[in-house]
């Protein structure tokens, strides 16, 4: 049921766009530092709920547990999830006690309740951020999905904004085809599918490919997994050294942002599976349900009316009933529609799509803060992850709670 948006004030001190894990982490850190901020901020998300996209993604791919260990979550106390789960030890998964999906969701709901945030999400999307420049009191006007607007002194963008990465051959398909026969992993919902007798091609070597392959096989499909490199097995997206000074010290000392960008790419090193998923896939290979084609790419795909005919870089040709592109997402500030007007008024250095923000993750000169993958040049390779949400919050919160950090104060000083 659609919720009716509440009557909004004309102005707010702080507006947060998005109600995912990053926004939730920011809010808990903010309230922990300054309880008086309660009621002084507004959170916008079309869904009207906290964590809606996160929950949908985990449900659609039937992901049983997180990839990140139990210290990563939206509560400021790293041990809070452990404490919450004292009576649920069986909901942690090996090898490093990874929290189960249900446990993590219940914990986040507990965080939301403890901080009295249940009613805080306004069920409206933000459609436009209009800068209102002023020498001493610059503001940002947020235009909302219902056509109304609100003026904010500070804004945090926590929309998880990323653009889908699609291989080039997709744009070269000339014939029309049903949308669900070729789609990005983010629009696959395993729960609705029966795949008996189908052969599915999954492109990409990340953990999402693994979840999709396991899900498709359990629904009766035979699967080909095509990976342009070899199948990489890693426990985490990036090495744990990226969570602290071990690697971050050198990263922050680097003043050449091109080099920082290259380091981020290298640290994440494309998609990888967990060793546990690798083992599960090898079992499916032995059972004859899965083929893994490494060092191979699609060269061309043609929709033949009922099936795809696919030519591969190793010269082979195959037929598939559907293709899923598990080719990831890319963070690019220039393709984020919400930011365009801000970037026109406050031009900013951009390195391969990533903005160079100030130390508080602000667009320089403007009270607009960015969280998630877009803040990677200032947060490091795990910026998009739960650990990145904590690191970003630790940078943003001081600028929000200390009036001396406000740009208007700095300007008039
Ligand atoms: C399948 C999957 C599994 C993952 N597992 C892990 C893991 O185990 N550990 C880990 O650390 N990381 C994991 N990640 C990476 C990362 O933690 C998640 O992607 C996480 O959801 C990012 O949080 P977020 O708050 O930035 O974005 P999101 O969860 O995407 O939330 C953003 C919210 O913003 C809202 N929004 C978007 N645009 C607007 C707008 N214009 N106006 C208002 N609201 C808007 C959306 O509705 C959404 O609710 C995973 C990612 C995926 C895809």
UniProtKB/TrEMBL annotation:
Top-rank lineage group of the source organism: Bacteria
Domain (FAD/NAD(P)-binding) ranges: 13-375
Q: GO molecular function, one example? A: oxidoreductase activity
InterPro entries to which the protein is assigned, alphabetical:
FAD/NAD-bd_sf (IPR036188), FAD/NAD-binding_dom (IPR023753)
Return any one Pfam family short name: Pyr_redox_2
List the protein's name: FAD/NAD(P)-binding domain-containing protein
| Protein's organism | Fischerella thermalis JSC-11
Upper classification of the source organism reads: Bacteria, Bacillati, Cyanobacteriota, Cyanophyceae, Nostocales
């Amino acid at each position: 049921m659609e919720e009716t948006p509440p009557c909004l004030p004309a102005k707010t001190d702080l507006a947060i766009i998005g109600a995912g894990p990053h926004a939730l982490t920011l809010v808990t850190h903010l309230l922990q530092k300054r309880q008086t901020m309660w009621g002084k901020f507004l959170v916008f998300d079309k869904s009207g709920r906290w964590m809606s996209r996160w929950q949908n993604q985990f449900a659609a791919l039937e992901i049983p547990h997180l990839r990140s260990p139990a210290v990563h979550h939206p509560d400021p106390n790293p041990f809070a999830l452990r404490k919450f789960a004292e009576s649920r030890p069986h909901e942690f998964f090996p090898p490093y006690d990874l929290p189960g999906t249900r446990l993590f969701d219940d914990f986040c709901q507990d965080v939301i309740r403890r901080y009295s945030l249940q009613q805080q999400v306004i069920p409206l999307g933000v459609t436009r951020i209009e800068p209102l420049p002023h020498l001493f009191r610059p503001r940002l006007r947020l235009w909302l999905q219902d056509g109304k607007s609100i003026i904010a002194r500070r804004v945090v963008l926590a929309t998880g904004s990323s653009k889908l990465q699609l291989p080039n051959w997709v744009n070269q398909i000339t014939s029309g085809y049903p949308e669900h026969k070729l789609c990005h992993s983010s629009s696959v919902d395993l729960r609705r599918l029966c795949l008996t007798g189908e052969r599915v091609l999954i492109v990409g070597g990340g953990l999402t490919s693994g979840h999709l392959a396991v899900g498709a096989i359990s629904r009766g499909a035979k699967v080909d997994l095509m990976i342009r490199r070899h199948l990489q097995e890693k426990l985490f997206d990036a090495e744990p050294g990226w969570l602290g000074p071990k690697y971050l010290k050198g990263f922050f000392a680097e003043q050449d942002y091109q080099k920082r960008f290259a380091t981020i790419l290298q640290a994440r090193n494309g998609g990888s599976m967990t060793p546990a998923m690798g083992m599960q896939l090898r079992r499916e290979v032995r059972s004859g349900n899965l083929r893994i084609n490494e060092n191979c790419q699609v060269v061309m795909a043609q929709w033949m009316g009922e099936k795809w005919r696919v030519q591969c870089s190793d010269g082979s040709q195959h037929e598939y009933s559907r293709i899923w592109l598990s080719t990831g997402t890319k963070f690019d500030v220039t393709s984020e529609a919400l930011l365009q007007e801000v970037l026109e008024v406050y031009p900013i250095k951009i390195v391969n799509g990533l903005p160079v923000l100030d130390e508080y993750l602000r667009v320089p000169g403007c009270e607009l803060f960015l969280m998630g993958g877009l803040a990677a040049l200032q947060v490091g390779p795990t910026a998009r992850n739960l650990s990145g949400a904590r690191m970003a919050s630790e940078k943003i919160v001081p600028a929000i709670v200390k009036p001396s950090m406000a740009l208007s104060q700095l300007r008039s000083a």
